[in-house]
Design a protein that fits this description.
Blueprint (H helix, E strand, L loop, with lengths): L5 H6 L1 H9 L1 H15 L2 H4 L7 E5 L5 H8 L3 E6 L2 H13 L6 E5 L5 H6 L7 E7 L8 H10 L1 E12 L3 H8 L4 H8 L4 E3 L4 E3 L4 H10 L3 E8 L15 H14 L11 E7 L4
Parallel strand pairs: 1-2, 1-4, 2-3, 4-5
Antiparallel strand pairs: 5-9, 6-7, 8-9
Helix pairs in contact: 2-3, 3-12, 9-10
The chain binds S-adenosylmethionine.
Length: about 270
């Protein structure tokens, strides 16, 4: 897979917002927040305002939530339209003074850190749904870790390669499609209409090991939602509430998290 152009994300902003508002999008953010909530005492001790970097933070849904909680947030992304939406969200929430936005390719993040344009002493770095789009996962993780203070927390969310064959088999009832997907190096991300490389927690874990970072949390996001065929039902408020309760209960349970739509790793940078 070649490098994905920022225009891909500019053009898909409406589809992305629709996805975020859909039940599966809402679950993505709700489960991620709950997972991360278990580690915030470590990242942001005593509930004190901290410094957070959102790498490829898109339209800022998570960054602005943290700013609303009193933290200073820096958001880096290369899509001008995503960032315009993030700015608007920050103004509407009244937190624009706590949010710094850099329009940049993540490949340039090391330079931004080197020039002091982005802080390298963050308490928490988010790397959410970026890894499927990058060609060098280890370099991306390394630069995310270099933006953290020793002992700081890195949160990684990524589409799970183990999910796609199962989804095609169960949901689409297409055994040959599922068989093909087993060893396919890429799949097409529907919302952005671009090929992506789903990863596995094992693969990302090996890179983190090499980088000397310690995984302290491994969760699944949407362990069951995407295998349920009746999407309409997920819009029903009481059904959604039950589904969310179930997903929250399954998020850190074996074996369900292994085939979740997304994996979520929470990592601590070594303190030395
Ligand atoms: C799926 S969205 C995720 C946005 C946000 N992290 C979230 O989870 O809500 C992917 C984001 O990554 C950004 N992105 C992808 N490749 C990038 C790169 N090389 N440099 C900067 N941003 C990138 C896109 O512009 C887009 O906003």
């Amino acid at each position: 897979m070649g490098r994905v152009d920022s225009g891909t994300f500019d053009e898909a902003i409406s589809a992305w917002r629709q996805w975020q508002d859909a039940p599966w999008g809402r679950l993505r953010y709700a489960i991620a927040a709950a997972n991360l909530g278990r580690h915030l005492d470590h990242a942001l001790p005593g509930g004190e305002p901290g410094r957070i970097l959102d790498v490829a933070g898109g339209n800022g849904v998570e960054a602005i939530r943290f700013a609303t909680d009193g933290h200073r947030v820096t958001l880096v992304d290369y899509s001008a339209r995503m960032l315009a939406a993030a700015r608007e969200l920050a103004y509407k929430a009244g937190v624009a003074d706590r949010v710094t936005i850099h329009e940049s390719d993540v490949a340039q993040l090391a330079e931004l850190l080197g020039e002091g344009l982005v802080d390298d002493g963050n308490d928490l770095v988010l790397c959410h749904n970026l890894l499927p789009y990058v060609t060098d996962v280890e370099a991306t993780l390394a630069v995310c870790l270099s933006a953290l203070r020793p002992g700081g927390v890195l949160s990684i969310i990524c589409s799970n390669a183990h999910s796609e064959p199962l989804r095609i088999a169960v949901r689409e009832q297409d055994p040959s499609g599922a068989l093909e997907a087993l060893d396919a190096p890429t799949r097409v991300a529907k919302t952005f209409g671009t090929p992506v490389v789903p990863r596995t927690a094992e693969e990302v874990g090996k890179h983190l090991d090499k980088l000397g970072a310690r995984i302290v949390g491994h969760y699944g996001i949407r362990n069951v939602c995407d295998y349920m065929t009746d999407d309409e039902r997920k819009y029903d408020a009481s059904f959604y509430a039950e589904l969310e309760r179930l997903e929250l209960a399954l998020a850190d349970r074996m074996p369900y998290k292994l085939t979740a739509r997304l994996f979520h790793l929470v990592v601590v940078k070594s303190a030395e």
